[in-house]
Automatic annotation (TrEMBL), chain A:
InterPro entries in alphabetical order: AAA+_ATPase, ABC_transporter-like_ATP-bd, ABC_transporter-like_CS, P-loop_NTPase
Protein name: ATP-binding cassette domain-containing protein
Biological source species: Candidatus Desulfobia pelagia
UniProtKB keywords: ATP-binding, Nucleotide-binding
SUPFAM superfamilies according to UniProt: P-loop containing nucleoside triphosphate hydrolases
Residues in ABC transporter domain copies: 4-209
PANTHER family hit by this protein: ABC TRANSPORT PROTEIN ATP-BINDING COMPONENT-RELATED, ABC TRANSPORTER DOMAIN-CONTAINING PROTEIN
Molecular functions (GO terms): ATP binding; ATP hydrolysis activity
Top-level lineage group: Bacteria
SMART domains assigned: AAA
Lipid metabolism keyword on record: no
TrEMBL record, chain B:
Underlying gene: fetB
Pfam family name, one: UPF0014
Family as reported in the entry's similarity comment: Belongs to the UPF0014 family.
Membrane topology type: Multi-pass membrane protein
Protein name: Iron export ABC transporter permease subunit FetB
GO cellular component: plasma membrane
Listed transmembrane segments: 6-24, 36-57, 63-81, 93-118, 130-148, 191-213, 225-246
């Protein structure tokens, strides 16, 4: 079943793009930085102007309020931003008593007390893990992940991969995972894409998946 | 009691002080003596001209001339707001937003004061209308210029934060809320400060003028209070309108941050 359908998407000077994502599926986009991977995610999240149509469960992005679209098509930027002084102020009230939320914290090796810490004191790894939890807490149907493990060690990278796979499985959602690491792409995704020039092309990994 | 008229000789004596200052600046090599003389000339000529215009206006008492004068003042103020922006909007938007906000705040407040409070007859009596409008426009202009500049600068600096907030499903107004509040505050603080210190640190110019002109101090004080309240209201509402209009223009119809609309 198609969850996200990208129909003749065109932005900036990139060629027209068509893509379909099935429920429960994760695809990878790899390639060197600066080639336009993030721009594609931004266009899908409707943060940048584009032409063409994007459908989520047959609902076109332009037919619902933009904030609604972005709640459902959750974009995780490579560098997360924190605008309040304290971590907890970026989350809904009483989020700490939520079971799923607590389990995410546990799986990513974060203490609950981190909610009371100053955002300016977080390490880059803590910021990245918390940003993922902040996004998942919106319960998006599609995840647009821009190098979600770039500042994590190998243990936490594995934890993040597990959490996202579990989230996709349990919500029948899907994800576009941007990664420069081809091994990671093979672990997390079932179909693989990369930019050749400005065009997004499908390719097979060495394992022939 | 009537004001003692100044003769050209009186003013020449005064001008001598400025020339003396210019000579000293030249000797000290401050490099501003030319500017000083030019500005002194400009001030003389501009004020003499406006004096002629006002004499004409007061003599004719025609509404149409007053309206033309008011429009010119508004357009010049709109231009001044634009000129003070470090990151103005492309096209005529900035000019339009600045002028519209000043128009709704200054004009409404002036009309309110003339018709309901001072109750002149006719309500547009130029002796009251022009000075009131001038003071309101001057102050609203400052407030609006400061607040819009703050808004666009902060939006520029914090664009990644704004986009992060949008990406998390926040609406345009929520994503911009802290910047909006900050900008509105910065536009209103000057008038709040001047209300708090007036009479202690300095005697307001209008009050001084009225006393020199022979008014009783208490009458002058009452007018000064009226003016300060009008300025506070005019500036405040003008700033709120200008910041909201500009904030709206930062985003497009799909609530995307569009800083490409700024230079």
């Amino acid at each position: 079943m198609t969850l996200l359908k990208i129909d003749n998407l065109q932005y900036l000077d990139f060629p027209v793009l068509n893509l379909e994502l099935n429920a429960g599926e994760t695809i990878s986009i790899s390639g060197p930085s600066g080639i336009g991977k993030s721009l594609l995610l931004r266009a899908i999240a409707d943060l940048d102007p584009h032409s063409g149509h994007i459908f989520l469960n047959d609902v076109e992005s332009g037919s619902i309020p933009p904030e609604q679209w972005r709640l459902n098509v959750g974009f995780l930027p490579a560098e997360s931003q924190w605008w309040e002084d304290v971590v907890a102020d970026h989350f809904p009230l009483n989020v700490a008593s939520d079971q799923t939320f607590s389990s995410w914290l546990d799986s990513l090796q974060l203490q609950k007390t981190i909610l009371n810490s100053q955002t300016s004191r977080l390490s880059s790894g803590e910021r990245q893990r918390l940003a993922l939890i902040r996004l998942l807490n919106n319960r998006p149907k599609v995840l647009l992940l821009d190098e979600p493990t770039a500042s994590l060690d190998s243990t936490n990278t594995k934890h993040v991969e597990t959490i996202i796979a579990e989230y996709i499985r349990s919500t029948h959602g899907s994800a576009i995972w941007v990664s420069h690491d081809i091994d990671q792409a093979e672990r997390v995704a079932s179909r693989h894409f990369r930019f050749e020039g400005k065009a997004l092309v499908s390719f097979l990994t060495q394992e022939g998946k | 009691m009537n004001v003692i008229p100044l003769t050209p000789l009186d003013l020449s004596l005064c001008a001598f002080l400025v020339i003396l200052l210019a000579a000293s600046s030249a000797r000290l090599k401050l490099g501003i003596h030319k500017q000083l003389i030019v500005s002194a000339f400009r001030c003389t000529i501009q004020l003499l001209l406006v004096g002629l215009v006002l004499e004409f206006l007061f003599a004719s008492q025609e509404f149409i001339w007053l309206a033309i004068m008011a429009t010119i003042m508004l357009l010049v103020a709109g231009h001044a707001v634009c000129a003070r922006q470090q990151r103005p909007l492309r096209g005529w938007w900035m000019y339009g937003i600045g002028t519209l906000s000043m128009c709704i705040s200054s004009f409404t407040v002036t009309c309110f004061a003339l018709q309901i409070i001072i109750n002149t007859s006719p309500w547009y009596t130029p002796q009251y209308a022009i000075p009131l409008l001038g003071m309101l426009l001057g102050n609203t202009m400052n407030g609006i210029a400061i607040s819009i500049d703050r808004l666009t600068q902060s939006a520029w600096q914090q664009r990644t934060v704004i986009e992060q907030r949008l990406a998390l499903g926040q609406t345009r107004s929520v994503a911009l809320s802290s910047i909006t509040k900050d900008s509105m505050r910065s536009g209103m603080i000057p008038i709040i400060n001047s209300m708090a210190t007036t009479g202690i640190v300095s005697l307001p110019g209008m009050m001084t003028g009225q006393i020199l002109g022979g008014s009783l101090p208490m009458d002058a004080v009452k007018y000064q209070i009226l003016i300060l309240f009008l300025i506070a209201a005019g500036t405040g509402f003008g700033v709120i309108a200008a910041v909201q209009l500009t904030g709206r223009r930062l985003f497009d119809e799909r609530q995307r941050l569009r800083l490409d609309r700024y230079k």
